[in-house]
C-alpha cells in the first residue's frame, strides 16, 4: 500500500517537482514515482493515493503537437516524447473513491490563465477519484525552466501535506 506519483515532463522541471512531492509524501507512506509512458493503465486498490503532475502546455495538458513543439524549441530530445498525461488519463481506470491530487508546472506569470493540473484533477474526478486538495502549480522562470527558487521545497511540503490529509481522512 502506498502512493503513486505519475509525471510527464519535457525538460525535467516537472520531474524534479514530482521527485520532491514523492519525497514529501514518503514522510508518511511509501511513494513510487513513474514517468507517464510507463505508468499502469489500471490502478489497483494497493494504491492509496494517486498524484499526477504535468507541464502546462497551451493553457492545459499537452497534446502531441505541443510536445513536438517543445522538442523543436529546445533542439534536443524531450523526456516525455510519446504519450502525455492527457492520453494516459483517457485510458485510465481507477478504484472508485481513490484519493487523488494533481499538480503542474507553469511559467512564472501568475496572471497567465490555464493549468494542466486543473484539467488533470477534473479528469481524475470524472474517473471516480476523490481529490483531497486543490490542484497546485509550481513555477518555472522560462519555457525550459529553471524552477523558481524555493519551488522544490514547496513541492516537498505539498507532498507531506497530501500524506497528512490522507492520514487524517483515514483516521
Ligand atoms: C508548447 C508549449 C506550450 C506552453 N504553454 C504554456 C502555457 O500555456 N502556460 C504556461 O504557464 N506555460 C506554458 N509553457 C511552459 C511550460 O509550462 C514549461 O515548459 C514547463 O513548465 C516546463 O516543465 P518540464 O520541464 O517538465 O517540461 C509551454 C511550453 C511549451 C513547450
Describe this structure in words.
- With 171 residues, this protein is of the alpha/beta class.
- The chain has one domain: Flavodoxin domain (Rossmann fold, 3-Layer(aba) Sandwich), CATH 3.40.50.360.
- It is built from 5 helices and 6 strands, in the order βαββααβαββα.
- The chain has helices at residues 13-25, 64-74, 85-90, 116-126, 151-170, and strands spanning 2-7, 31-35, 47-55, 99-107, 130-131, 136-140.
- Strands 1, 2, 3, 4, 5 and 6 form a 6-stranded parallel β-sheet that branches.
- α1 (13-25) runs parallel beside α5.
- 44% of the residues are buried.
- Bound molecules: flavin mononucleotide (FMN).
- Flavin mononucleotide binds next to α1, α2 and β4.
Amino acid at each position: 500500500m502506498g502512493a503513486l506519483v505519475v509525471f510527464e515532463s519535457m525538460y525535467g522541471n516537472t520531474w524534479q517537482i514530482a521527485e520532491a512531492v514523492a519525497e514529501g509524501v514518503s514522510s508518511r507512506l511509501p511513494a513510487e514515482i513513474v514517468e507517464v509512458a510507463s505508468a499502469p493503465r489500471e490502478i489497483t486498490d494497493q494504491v492509496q493515493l494517486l498524484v499526477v503532475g504535468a507541464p502546462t502546455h497551451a493553457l492545459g495538458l499537452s497534446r502531441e503537437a505541443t510536445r513536438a513543439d517543445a522538442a523543436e524549441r529546445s533542439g534536443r530530445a524531450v523526456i516525455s516524447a510519446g504519450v502525455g498525461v492527457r492520453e494516459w488519463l483517457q485510458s485510465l481506470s481507477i478504484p472508485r473513491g481513490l484519493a487523488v491530487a494533481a499538480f503542474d508546472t507553469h511559467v512564472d506569470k501568475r496572471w497567465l490563465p490555464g493549468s494542466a493540473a486543473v484539467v488533470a484533477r477534473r479528469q481524475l474526478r470524472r474517473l471516480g477519484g476523490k481529490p483531497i486538495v486543490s490542484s497546485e502549480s509550481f513555477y518555472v522562470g522560462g519555457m525550459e525552466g529553471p524552477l523558481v527558487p524555493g519551488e522544490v521545497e514547496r513541492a516537498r511540503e505539498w507532498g507531506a501535506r497530501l500524506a497528512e490529509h490522507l492520514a487524517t481522512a483515514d483516521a
